[in-house]
């Protein structure tokens, strides 16, 4: 299988798309320049043990102690110093998980000589480099010369091509519609049905509305679509899929789901049996979901809304694309006030664009960029 990683390194956010045989398989969004914690090498000290969990807690200099399973601790004991790699970032209030037995941690042991814990021994690689290694990609296409140079340093031997043209790499590579689709709460299913995905703090619920399809046909059609979106959206934790119809129809949907989940590199676990058509999938957490990467808690009600950073990045992508096709024409961008405030604070990144900013009159979290009349 041919795997390719597209990296759009913008001034505000970095968008990544993994393609398999030319089709979009995964989307990820990270703040520009953020390396995160995954892959960091730290010198820490074991401060406490949790025998009931078979684990230690380790002070590695983060806000909360890291979680070290005893099977990943080697010969370490309470009070001992350990050189460890962060193998799971702290998410949703959970501590980072570390390993003292990973190849990277073992290789970095000499760096701890003479150091006092806690200490950072080696910063995390760029997320794109970690993803490229984990997925076994054969080539990278990168929009952004500095990002390409950094990835070449971390991925020697891999083909890293610099994209030529505007900032919207997804649009140029034909992935913009796929990306937009994986942000929608509902997708069409059959002639009149739909697949609804509702991501909450506790779990993700996926509902099947077969429309004009028979229950079996609806389940067998929905299962691969659900599996595709679970991976594209990087959904994790508990995922409940509500299949419809009688027992044979539910069993057919479950079998189709098992086949569709099989290629997922995170190896989701499909629980045995079902409860009235409810089928449980558990998928390992690997960073934030696509939705949570682009949203923040809404300050005026429950739920989440699109972050100022993502809106600002969207303005820049649209403005650069429009300026490329309409050279010399003055541009106007309308966006929510918080997104414009972020852009105004980063005027250096769009100084070359003939762009005027204006607070949007519409109440929704949307942006518009146009040629000024």
Automatic annotation (TrEMBL):
Coiled coil: none
Keywords recorded for this protein, A-Z: Endonuclease, Hydrolase, Magnesium, Metal-binding, Nuclease, RNA-binding
Cofactor(s) listed: Mg(2+)
Alphabetical list of InterPro entries matching this protein: NA-bd_OB-fold, RNA-bd_AU-1/RNase_E/G, RNase_E/G
Alphabetized GO MF terms: endonuclease activity; hydrolase activity; metal ion binding; RNA binding; RNA nuclease activity
Pfam family, one: RNase_E_G
Organism superkingdom: Bacteria
GO biological process, one term: rRNA processing
Limits of the RNA-binding protein AU-1/Ribonuclease E/G domain: 160-285
One of the record's GO cellular component terms: cytoplasm
Record-given protein name: RNA-binding protein AU-1/Ribonuclease E/G domain-containing protein
